[in-house]
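### Sample
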Amino acid sequence: MKISLGKKTLLYPAPVCVVGTYDHAGKPNVMTAAWAGICCSSPPCIAVSLRKATYTYGNILERKAFTVSLPSEEYIHQADYFGMASGRDEDKFARTRLTPVKGELVDAPFVKEFPLALECSLHSSVQIGLHTEFIGEILDVKAEESCVGPDGLPDIEKIRPLLFSPEGRKYHGVGKFLGSAFQMGRMI
């Protein structure tokens, strides 16, 4: 029997995404966000929900661009820090000794050391309540060559992305492979 937990932001898992922007002076900045996900196939788009209070919020509106980098398990400490500190007060790249890379197609940086990065131009934004959902059209996906499988696509087991448990405020890794999508249902 299921019990009611009330109105909560419970959807498992939430990806740990690092959103990259430049501020008004051109300083690279990043922040960790877990309210993110693919929201359209054509054009390919990702939605990232941010509070107005974040430094990144204003940067996205000003530059009309952002990146989304996926940290691997190896960078859990840096990814967590990116969500704790504000780019208004600190140079997060200097503090973590990670490397900002200027996007080739958008006016935003991504994290060199993270295995996957999406370059996004701001498609639209929607004020929802406490958060604004920024919808970015994905103009390019950059993958570390060592994380690409024989099919030419990113391999989740090589990327080892971080997952976030919203209510428990905990990080997790990816579990074991269970089966192929659009194949398992044929066994019924």
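The mean pLDDT is 95. This sample (Flavoredoxin) is used throughout the tutorial notebook.
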